[in-house]
Specification:
Number of domains: 2
Order of helices and strands: EHEHEHEHEHEHHHHHHEE
CATH class of the largest domain: Alpha Beta
CATH topology of the largest domain: Rossmann fold
Strand content: 15-25%
Low-confidence stretches: 221-231
Radius of gyration: 20 Å
Structural class: alpha/beta
Number of helices: 11
Shape: elongated
CATH superfamily of the largest domain: Response regulator
Strand order of the largest sheet: 2-1-3-4-5-6
């Protein structure tokens, strides 16, 4: 008999977490849920205690998020596989999780067959991206490759292309709602990007972020001292 795939489930929404665990335990598979965590810090600690094969990792959580938790887990336990399971279908999150060490990225609205096959795939050493995201991720990688020189110049801080775009807009004085309308994305997505920008730049507000943008030459100042044009 094959060894069961030992899985740790990490999600800060108890109702979803309980439902996910119930699904994994009720479907015929070789998966054994050995524990659950409600945030990234707890997940990092439990990986050391329980030694799972696969960690099902939510991304947006209070305290330590899934990206940082994944990074720490892979640094401390390289053999442990991480499969992101998120409500966010933004390719930037996929790329951030992959850079942190995740082997795959599934969406929470996926059916049980896709989630279980994702767990089995990363356990076997394969990469697995939700089908709905695959083309978006390939397009993002292609754009990044074609624009590598400019990206390397502008991204000393580790900002993604989308984050740089949003940084330029907030430096021009746009609110998160205005940025969302301008880019045709949700205000919640903009809020998440802005928080990631603050974290990566080590700043605490829009003013500090704007000063960074000016210092890096992403925007320029007019005679009045207002940000008035793109670099």
């Amino acid at each position: 008999m094959k060894e069961p795939i030992r899985v740790l489930v990490v999600d800060d929404h108890p109702v979803y977490r309980d439902g996910l665990i119930t699904m994994l335990r009720s479907r015929p598979s070789n998966i054994e849920v050995i524990g659950e965590a409600c945030d990234g810090a707890e997940a990092v600690a439990m990986v050391g205690e329980l030694n799972p094969h696969v960690v099902l990792m939510d991304i947006k959580m209070a305290g330590m998020d899934g990206i940082e938790a994944t990074r720490q887990i892979k640094q401390r336990h390289p053999a442990v596989k991480v499969l992101a399971l998120s409500a966010y279908d933004d390719e930037d999150y996929v790329l951030e999780m992959v850079k942190a060490g995740a082997s795959g990225y599934m969406l929470k609205d996926a059916d049980s067959v896709i989630i279980i096959s994702g767990i089995e795939a990363v356990y076997e050493g394969k990469a697995r991206i939700h089908p709905r995201l695959a083309m978006k991720v390939l397009t993002a990688f292609a754009a990044a490759s074609n624009d590598a020189e400019r990206r390397d110049r502008d991204r000393g801080s580790g900002l993604t292309e989308r984050e740089l775009e949003i940084l330029k807009l907030i430096a021009r004085g746009m609110s998160n709602r205005q940025v969302a309308n301008h880019l045709w994305i949700s205000e919640r997505t903009v809020d998440n990007h802005v928080q990631n920008i603050y974290r990566k730049l080590g700043v605490g507000d829009r003013t500090q972020a704007t000063l960074y943008a000016i210092r890096k030459g992403l925007v320029s100042l007019g005679r009045s001292g207002a940000v008035d044009q793109w670099s």
